[in-house]
Each structure stands twice: as structure tokens, then as C-alpha cells.
Amino acid sequence: MAAAHADAAQALSLETTNVADASSVPDSVKTDDLLSAAEAAAKNNNFPLVESLLKRVLEKEPKHKSARRQLGYALFAQR
Question: What is the pLDDT of residue 23?
Fold first, then answer.
């Protein structure tokens, strides 16, 4: 029980990096994975990252309708 109380007093810190683009994502990443990452970024309101990820999708698949539509939403959200 004493260990549980000691744990409760500990502070937790989390370091994050604010990634504004997808330049660190390797070229070998699949389109579906880029789309999933863009969706997660959108849920976090990180629209510059969404834009960058979706542009990467469109480089790989220029006619990807969903990516084009989502890119439009991301661009609009940044206005």
C-alpha cells in the first residue's frame, strides 16, 4: 500500500515534438498508413501536418479522391 501512495506523488512529464510536415516520413510508407496518420493529425487539429501527409498521398496516387477531398478540408480549416 505504501508503494501505491509513493507512486501517486510522482510527477509525469511528456515531451513531444511539434512536427509541422511529413518530411521525416520515409518514402516507403504505404498510402493507407499516410491516410491513417493524416486522420490522426486531423483529430488533433494539426492541419498543417494533415496537409503535408495528404500531399504525400497524392504524390503516390494523384487520382486518390478521398485524399483530395480531405486535403480540401484541411486547407479550409487553416484559413
Answer: 73
